[in-house]
Specification:
about 70 residues, mainly alpha, 4 helices
Length: about 70
């Protein structure tokens, strides 16, 4: 079951296959057991790149707030 169409958004954002896999790996580490949260965060990351709010490189940076 898929909650979000992350692949289409990634394609629209110009995210390559290897880049998408890198994002998937990073986000899966944060949500290893919650498929919906994993997909939501992946979708949001792709959307921010598509909209130009952040770059792919920025999306891969660890979130310091998540460590608290």
């Amino acid at each position: 079951m898929h909650y979000f169409d992350c692949e289409s958004v990634a394609r629209e954002a110009g995210i390559t296959g290897p880049q998408l896999e890198a994002l998937r790996g990073l986000i899966k580490q944060e949500f290893p057991k919650d498929q919906m949260m994993y997909e939501l965060h992946l979708h949001r990351a792709c959307m921010t790149i598509r909209k130009g709010v952040s770059s792919f490189e920025e999306a891969l940076k660890p979130d310091p707030a998540a460590r608290t």
